[in-house]
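anyone seen this seq b4? input:
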Amino acid sequence: RIANRLWPHQRYPFLQSFLDICRDHYATALVPLDYSEPEAARQTINRWVADKTEEKILELIPPGILDPLTALVLTNAVYFKGNWASQFDKAKTETAPFWIGPDESVDAWLMYQKTELLYGETGAMQIVQLPFVGDDLALVVLLPKARDGLPKIEESLSATGLDELLRRLRPREIDLFLPRFRVSSNFRLDAALVALGMVDAFVDRKADFSGMDGYSQWLYIAAVFHQAYMEANEEGAEAAAATAVVIKFRGLPPPSPVVRADHPFLVLLREKQTGSLLFLGRVVNPVA
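predicted toks r here
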């Protein structure tokens, strides 16, 4: 289940064309908020995220981030819960050491089943794929052969390399021991995105989001937050993730131009298609 929502400042002059594209092409609901009350706005957004993730992510946006200069918050939430195609027998789950280092362990509940799964291995790791009911999704476990081998596996992993590993998996009967686990994490992604090359978007006098409001170098990304949650047990797995992008403006929106013709000016009558000038005149005294 995937949900997206945009939370624009209720008084910020976004282009209607931008709002229409978000609604019509991305099926994204728009809910204006009053960021002059930042804490109320934060709670509204966080409540929506909690609802879409079945209460697994409660505080996506921390206090003190939103303020009256917030123009827009973009949120995305993903939630999944599924049962294993081949479930573990709870009677076979036992406590056993889980090695968090070469010589250090903690007691964990280790589930067990002997079953046929897609399996493969390299010199450094074993790969096993556990399908969920419906066979549309699967959990892939990459298990280093060395107790302290995870950092090397992470360093060597790439999208292309992972695709190749998964293509080489073959059905095989295996004895699978997998711990019950519950993991969660939260990140502020600003620095990571800048390191990947997304620099100008975070600089208020370089970012160009003029397609959103018509003004160049006015809107910029102030913060990006991400949280993730996953739990696995004998029946299946549950996962949730959410991301928030906070966009602010440099100051108050530029005022509308004021054209007050209360002193002498020029006028011209122009044929628009050809550009021909049909009349050119000077207005020095409109009541003469």
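The longest strand covers residues 104-121. The domain at 94-179 is CATH 2.30.39.10 (Alpha-1-antitrypsin; domain 1). kinda curious what u guys think
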